[in-house]
Amino acid sequence: MRWDNHRVVITAAGRDFGRTLAIRLADLGAEVFLSARHLAAARRVRDEIRDRGHQRVHAFACDLTDPASIRDFATGVAEHTDRIDVLVNNGSRYLDGPDLLSATDADVVDTISSGATGTVLTTKSFLPLLLNSETPDVVTMVSACGTPGHHRSDAHDAFYAAKSAQAGFTEILSKRLRPQGVRVISLYPPDFDNADPLSEEWETTPREAEDALTAHSLVECVLFAVAQPRDCFIKAFHFEQV
After folding, report:
1. At 199, is the secondary structure helix, strand, or coil?
2. Looking at residue 242, what is its pLDDT?
3. In a 10 Å sphere around its CB, with 0-12 CB exposed, 13-18 middle and 19+ buried, how is residue 97 labelled?
4. Which among 18, 234, 240, 17 is positioned nearest to 147, based on CA atoms?
5. CA 10, CA 112: separation in Å to the nearest integer?
6. What is the pLDDT of residues 86-138, one digit of tens each?
7. Alpha-carbon distance 238 to 242, whole Å?
8. 7: closest CA among 66, 69, 58?
9. Is the keyword Thylakoid assigned to this protein (predicted)?
10. Which of 120, 8, 103 is nearest to 64 (CA)?
11. Pairwise CA distance, residues 134 & 109, whole Å
């Protein structure tokens, strides 16, 4: 599937999986609107993509803990386009440490705000542009930590809380937006290998049954879900954890 006619917003695309997804979708022809908390990080990825010959890429600053910053991001994107076909809610601060007392109050607030509140407000801000698309999709990178009963991560309790909130939000959103033709797709990966998509490791990282999940496979899950006919609402991807 080529993405030449797709306009895609990706949050937290300055590094890690957000960067990976931005590069891969741009390679497939998508017009990409990427954000990072710091504009310099977003511009760095934008420039990496442009160096590959793809000029339809735009960089924005967006702090997912700041409602005004989210609104400014959506307004900035609207100055370039009248529609968005795919919104990827990738942004969410990770917080390590299985001891509840190990994190400061500020860390807890920042973690929950970026993952939970940030996802809700980003979706809200971009919904008008999504509704202008004939093929609107909302893709949210949740986590296995958002699955009921999951306990195998060393993430902090606040991260579990943020991911559980994302899961609850996307669950109800899927039902409520379906009548408007908006598909809501959530991914619940465990820890995964994120090889640099610009390195040889991208193609050589093992992807056998005994291996950990890879970013390469996660990208292919997103591509698969979006490529389905519009009567096919793939609500969630859950993965076995090695």
Report:
1. coil
2. 81
3. middle
4. 240
5. 19
6. 999 999 999 999 999 999 999 999 999 999 999 999 999 999 999 999 999 99
7. 13
8. 58
9. no
10. 120
11. 37
H helices within the chain, ranges in order?
16-27, 39-51, 67-78, 105-112, 118-131, 157-177, 201-204, 215-227
pTM, to two decimals: 0.97
Strand partners of residue 185? 139
Please identify, in words, the CATH class of the domain defined by 7-238.
alpha beta
Tell me the pLDDT tens digit for each residue of 63-91. Answer: 999 999 999 999 999 999 999 999 999 99
Q: How many residues does the chain have?
A: 242
Phi, psi of 179 (to 5 degrees): -60, -20
Q: What is the model's pLDDT at position 57? A: 98
Quick one: tokens of 73? Answer: 């991001």
